[in-house]
Amino acid sequence: CAALISTEEKLIVLKQVQELIINKDPSLLDNFLDEIIAFQTDKSIEVRKFVIGFIEEACKRDNELLLRLIANLNMLMRDESVNVVKKAILTLTQLYKVALQVSFSVSDMQEPCWDMVTQMKEDVLALLDSDNDGVRTHAIKFTESLIITLSPRTPDSDTPKKQEGDISLDKIPKDHTYIRYDTLCEEGKLALEQLLKFMVHPAISSINLTTALGSLATLARQRPMFMSEVVQAYETLHANLPPTLAKSQVSSVRKNLKLHLVSVLKHPSSVDFQGQISTLLLDLGMSQSEITRCTPATVQPRKRLHHEPYVEGKRIKMEATLVEDDDDKEEPAPVITPKPSSSAGTQSSIDLTAEFLLPLLNPENVANLSRVYLGMSTLKELILKRPSRQYQYLNVLLNLSSHEKEKVNL
């Protein structure tokens, strides 16, 4: 009967069933699960995409269902339709975290489920080399999420409110029966390496590059231990933009690079990289005053916070007023001028330098500085007008013949 109705009618009925068994009466979910999943082989792309969405919602409602449904998602990820594959990647981005959560409880099916999830993760990372631009974009976002999940959240991690409950490496027990903490840690680092390698590909498309720029900014803010790699990648890209980009695309990429650099600069952990970031922003057309306004003030400018890989550090307390980003952390926050702080502990390095110099700028010292400057200017003019005696002597020696050099014992 289902084969006789149109795709639109089929989707209407399926959505009604989903609303009933997931939101209104979850006790019915197990009874109707197989009937819904049977539509994964439907001829309609939209119906198959619906099944993927249903798998995600069902597993979020009942994490244990992932043990039964992961194989179905794995099959749909190999669908002939690019749109179905993209939908499957988006769903795996969420269900990878669910799989880690499920691994905390004991079950005979869990280890095979985790093995399949791990293989699917590798399959998506391989799709960074896909021929399809859209698939690559979805693979970039998956890689971003994977790196965040497989690295520890630290006190200075800038975590969006909607992701505060997400699992991360610091929540994984180091004595887990089949999931090794060190292995996950290494997989996260390798994923970052793959993303950085993808970014410097000379034939990368504008849309993929723009997506990757945003992902790196998100990583720098949520996982400050990767700040060094992110800033270095931005420097490399700024100096070597892909030759395949059109003029308008170059302008767009530079604009996005500027916005993401500003969002990274605003993070307190950017203190070690403010010089590099400021140089890039100046090259991208931002004024020094704008850069200064976006630079977070620190209590002790000379003492900087260093992030050791995967080691939780103490967070520097910021006295200056900070602008909180909204839930959507993928887009950098607009440049907002921070309000001047009344606290004496938030003096900038410029203020401290001014306090040191002002008492020294008395009339006598200023007059002495003027005389020194005038003397140096006069000396420079004399050097430019005539060569020194040593230079004249050296010039004569260089022009002597070998016979003449013997006469002067050279």
TrEMBL record:
Disordered as annotated region, ranges: 323-347
Keyword Nucleus: yes
Domain Symplekin/Pta1 N-terminal, residue spans: 82-295
Location of the protein in the cell: Nucleus
UniProt KW keywords: mRNA processing, Nucleus
Superkingdom of the source species: Eukaryota
Gene3D superfamilies: Leucine-rich Repeat Variant (1.25.10.10)
One annotated GO biological process: mRNA processing
Cellular component, GO annotation: mRNA cleavage and polyadenylation specificity factor complex
Record SUPFAM superfamilies: ARM repeat
Annotated protein name in UniProt: Symplekin-like
Species annotation: Sinocyclocheilus grahami
